[in-house]
Amino acid sequence: MNHLRLTFARALVATLFALGVSLRGASLDVPPPGAFTIVVIPDTQGYRGRATKSTPESTAPLTNPVFQNHTRWIAENIRAQNIVFVSHVGDIVDIDNAEQWQLARECLDRLHGVVPYGLVVGNHDMKNNGDATLFQRFFPAERFRAFPWYGGAYTHDRPDQHVSANNANSYQLFTAAGLDFVHLNLECNAPDDVLAWASRILTKYAARRALVSTHMDLGPLNKPTADDGFFKDPKGRMTWVKVHGKRGNSPAQMWEKLYSKHANLAFVFSGDQSRTTAMRVAAQGSMGNFVHSLLSDYTSSGPLRLYRFIPAENKVRVITFDTTKRQLVENTGYVADPAEHQFTVDYAMSEPASRSIP
Predict the structure, then answer these.
(1) DSSP code of 61?
(2) Which of 11, 44, 135, 270 pairs with 352 at a CA distance of 20 to 30 A?
(3) Which of 268, 269, 267, 279 is CA-nearest to residue 220?
(4) How far apart are CA 80 and CA 86, in angstroms?
(5) Phi first, then psi: what are they for 151, rounded to 5°?
(6) What pTM was computed for the model?
(7) Would you tell me how many other CB atoms lie within 10 Å of the CB of residue 250?
């Protein structure tokens, strides 16, 4: 009897694996023919070891296993998932010091020259006044200029070159399945001069489908006055800022001044709000197109986002995948409703970029 049970168990395991079912949780399938994937890495603040916020008394070497797992998994699955672009939505580091930036660069070196990618400067990646000196040291514009997909970065002639300049705001150009894209990285609370530049880029490439990655977009509408407000207060496109002082634009202002004004803009990716975790808003811009704003911030705990574009179906499948556990996120252990982790968005890829209205 025991032998029969063991034989049956082995046969069941073999069958499950043959069907692509993981015993620890649902596994990731492969894209259908003609589909492609854009990966969005959420905040990677999970640094451990000496001089970190999470383990301030530690004398152990600095590590960030989740960040390492993200870039390792991406590099291993570029072909299987047809990954055409990778975006990091900011808070690349937890503390703006050279040690964390060095480790972040080592993690991202795994993607460098392998797949097009872009980086957003989050509030943890700069000083409150917008000083992004260390980001500029480790990820300057010169690091990317040789790549044909790198479009360029915002520049200005003010004395404060450590603010907003030298790749703190950049754009990339890529093509997948015959569809041309322009992708913008906008720093947290991007000031007016940055938004004016971004608007010129979106206008210049109006025939391309536009994507924006920024750090702060969805979350508590107003800045919470108590810690539980981050969980309980009404949520949507935020009306408050964290950096750049009076020059900084809130997410609501960025919508009014930029996002809502361009017919080719389809998606805005963001992070920042770990206590919201995941959220989405579809809003109609002034040109009649719908802009899908998508927040994902999984507390640096393992998940990232895969946006699987399926042109034949005019749909984008949104997949939340844990690169540490190597399985889909399906449990209710996160703040967001489980339906916010795996879902599908309508996106008319059969229409020209400026007419992609569901």
Answers:
(1) P
(2) 270
(3) 279
(4) 15
(5) -80, -40
(6) 0.91
(7) 18
Structure-token pair, residue 237? 């496109």
CA dihedral sign, ordered 317, 68, 129, 157: negative
- How do the pLDDT tens digits run along the chain, 358 residues long? 344 333 333 343 333 333 333 334 578 999 999 999 999 999 999 999 999 999 999 999 999 999 999 999 999 999 999 999 999 999 999 999 999 999 999 999 999 999 999 999 999 999 999 999 999 999 999 999 999 999 999 999 999 999 999 999 999 999 999 999 999 999 999 999 999 999 999 999 999 999 999 999 999 999 999 999 999 999 999 999 999 999 999 999 999 999 999 999 999 999 999 999 999 999 999 999 999 999 999 999 999 999 999 999 999 999 999 999 999 998 667 888 889 999 999 999 988 886 544 4
CA distance 18 to 79: 20
Indicate if 18 and 81 belong to the same structural domain. Answer: no
The residues, ordered by sequence, that sit 6+ positions from 348 with a Cβ below 8 Å of its Cβ are 314, 355, 356, 357, 358
Residue 221 belongs to domain spanning: 33-355
Handedness of CA 29, 81, 207, 164 (dihedral sign): positive
What tokens does 273 get? 């709000």
Are residues 324 and 219 located together in one domain of the fold? yes
With 0-12 CB in 10 A as exposed, 13-18 as middle and 19+ as buried, what is 24? Answer: exposed
Q: Are residues 103 and 4 in the same domain?
A: no
SS3 content of the chain, % helix, strand, coil (to 5): 25, 25, 50
Quick one: tokens of 298?
Answer: 């999984």
Could you tell me where the beta strands, DSSP code E, fall in the chain?
Answer: 36-41, 83-88, 117-119, 150-153, 170-176, 179-186, 209-214, 218-220, 235-237, 265-270, 278-284, 290-296, 303-310, 315-322, 327-328, 342-346
